[in-house]
Amino acid sequence: MNHRFGSANTEKESEMKDLWDGLNFWAKTGVVFVVLFVSFWIGLGMFKVLFVTDVDNYQVAFRYDLIGQHRGEIVVQENSDGTYRRGWIVTLPIVHKVHTMDLRPMQLQMNANSRVLNAKLVQFDPKGLELFLSWHGRNDYEGPGTGSAVGSTTPFSEILRSYAYDGNTYPFLKILRELGTTEGSKPLDGNAQEVHVEKATPPQTEK
Predict the structure, then answer these.
(1) Among 15, 86, 113, 175, which is most exposed with the fewest C-beta within 10 angstroms?
(2) Closest to 144 (Cα-Cα) out of 182, 109, 188, 172
(3) CA 168 to CA 165: how far, in whole Å?
(4) CA angle 75–76–77, rounded 5-degree value
(5) Is the pLDDT of residue 207 over 50?
């Protein structure tokens, strides 16, 4: 049985060798090029899945250290000039975990009987990131308007809505404007400023 199996393998190898020897130079070059091209894209895809987090231009990324000297620390990803890092962030998956937060302003509504009673324009503020994560845990938090969430609410927007309407202030939430009140649309807080999606440090209010 083993002898037959070995003979079949030898015949296959011989046929493949004869087929390869029968190709001309350009045909061999084409085969090698195709193999290298396919291998490159497969390798690149595996590298991106395992080591890369893609950060969009409206997101802020933070890194959580899984092991090592800084285990358990949360670090907002910034460039040397103070702007948020965007694009590809490469990390070792067994050492770090990178998550993203949506910084786009979002309109949150309070409804009753299919009528909008009140709406607020709010935005997540990275200054309160650690407090927010201590309450809600590490995750990727996306606002409405992303992927399947277009035109709908998301868990992130529902979380912010619960804080926007409870009457308190929080370091991770900026209420930029209140809409639909009896006095018309107006800023809820004259000192509230939109978080700059490029700068790591939001602009300060002039006094």
Answers:
(1) 113
(2) 109
(3) 8
(4) 110
(5) no
